[in-house]
Write a structure and sequence with these properties.
The complex is a heterodimer of chains A (about 110) and B (about 290).
Chain A (H helix, E strand, L loop, with lengths): L2 H15 L5 E8 L7 H12 L8 E5 L4 E4 L5 E2 L15 E5 L3 E8 L1
Parallel strand pairs in A: 1-2
Antiparallel strand pairs in A: 1-6, 3-4, 3-5
Chain B lengths: L13 E4 L42 E5 L4 E8 L2 H17 L2 E6 L6 H11 L6 E7 L4 H8 L3 E6 L8 H11 L6 E5 L16 E7 L6 H4 L1 H5 L3 E5 L11 H11 L4 E4 L8 H11 L6
The chains are: A alpha+beta (about 110), B alpha/beta (about 290).
């Protein structure tokens, strides 16, 4: 799915920033509400990095849980699924975190 | 290639102007933003392109050992797409054009909806269309017959449109002030949700034949919808579809989205959709 384009975006960004460095590790943050499946990114990573200065690099992914705030009862909660429903039953929630999709750092060898 | 759905960068996106005597294809790089390195004979300007490199702040070296060091990046993966989408949005706003990103599963009726919309509004609002499909110009031909200016983007193995593709399509279409650009995204309820194109509104088209559980099954797509059109309501007497169940599921995913019921085939409910469009279309300058 879109994880291939996402992974290509990761490689593009890293090679753009560090074109002359050999990258040995890439660290990503994929929030639980980001809409991206970490396992699919892992699958694509080796294919996409082939022939680049990221080839052979390891991939570390942190997956922080989502955090939402209910606009009805005011409670903050971690949704159990991408459908963010408050324990009170309300769907009127504000997503506070867990939607991030970013490259946190890389290891240069 | 992605084993999940088979999409890959190998196919490359191709843009075709239909019915205006020329077509061309661009080589399209791995991450869909190779705009800098293509050249062609058109006179469309490229001022939109690529101010975004400055976004990437200087590289900060956190620790430096003899052989290895960690470089902190803290960079959004979709930063390039998002920046180009912002440029598209500003370009559209500056020219007084409404752009609508229309997304649905394959077969929900996007092209039928657009054909009818273009015909019914033809004396009031000009509608041009960006057609996104993996292959063929079948939809572009249909929209051409409906009287629209149209650009077909074939994404090859790709499963969604991105902001760079729309940027190229807008140059080619050159839509007039006070008009609407309908972006018919690739039929897919998953991947297009992540890619901001620079549109002012997102419309998800669902159809009664898909079943009432779709908002709950594809929450990322529905959560971002400004408007959900439930199409093929003319089939309700013949199928097992509970509109209340559908509306209830939709409210759980996105309580704020508006739901309109339409039949693009019979025209039922379409006036509310046209009103929705008219309210958002900028008034062209005199």
């Amino acid at each position: 799915m879109h994880e291939l384009a996402i992974t290509e975006g990761v490689v593009d960004a890293v090679t753009g920033r560090l074109p002359d460095s050999r990258i040995t590790c890439v660290r990503l943050e994929i929030g639980a509400l980001s809409g991206v499946v970490a396992d699919s990114v892992r699958f694509c990573f080796d294919l996409v990095t082939e022939g680049t200065n990221l080839e052979g690099a390891s991939l570390e992914i942190s997956e922080p849980p989502g955090l939402c705030s209910c606009r009805v009862c005011g409670v903050n909660f971690e949704p159990a699924s991408p459908i963010a429903l408050c324990p009170c039953g309300s769907a009127e929630v504000t997503v506070l975190s867990g939607q991030d999709l970013k490259i946190t750092s890389v290891q240069v060898g | 290639m992605c084993a999940t759905c088979g999409c890959s960068s190998g196919g490359g996106a191709r843009l075709m102007t239909v019915g205006r005597g020329h077509s061309h294809s661009h080589p399209h790089g791995a991450a869909h933003h190779s705009g800098r390195d293509h050249d062609h004979e058109h006179d469309h300007e490229h001022e939109l392109d690529h101010e975004h490199d400055r976004e990437f702040a200087q590289v900060e070296v956190l620790s430096s050992a003899d052989s290895e060091r960690t470089v902190e990046l803290q960079q959004k993966v979709l930063a390039k797409n998002d920046q180009l989408a912002a440029v598209n949005r500003e370009w559209l706003r500056g020219r007084g054009i409404l752009a609508v990103n229309l997304m649905s599963s394959p077969g929900a009726g996007k092209t039928t909806l657009l054909e009818r919309t273009a015909r019914d509004l033809s004396d009031r609002i000009a509608i041009s269309v960006v057609e996104g499909d993996q292959e063929t110009a079948l939809d572009a031909s249909r929209m051409l017959r409906a009287g629209s200016k149209v650009v077909q983007i074939n994404t090859g193995a790709g499963c969604h449109l991105d902001a760079e593709m729309l940027s190229r399509a807008l140059r080619s279409l050159d839509p007039a002030a006070g008009s609407i650009v309908m972006i018919e995204n690739v039929g897919n309820l998953v991947c297009p949700a992540l890619f901001d194109l620079g549109e002012q509104a997102r419309v998800v088209l669902a159809s009664t034949t898909e079943g009432a559980d779709k908002p709950l099954k594809y929450p990322h797509m529905f959560r971002q919808a400004d408007l959900v059109l439930l199409n093929k309501i003319d089939l309700l007497p013949y199928i097992d579809f509970d509109v209340r169940e559908y509306a209830s599921g939709l409210r759980k995913v996105t309580p704020d989205a508006l739901l309109l019921q339409v039949s693009a085939t019979t025209g039922d409910g379409m006036d509310a959709w046209y009103d929705w469009l008219r309210r958002r279309t900028p008034v062209p300058p005199d």
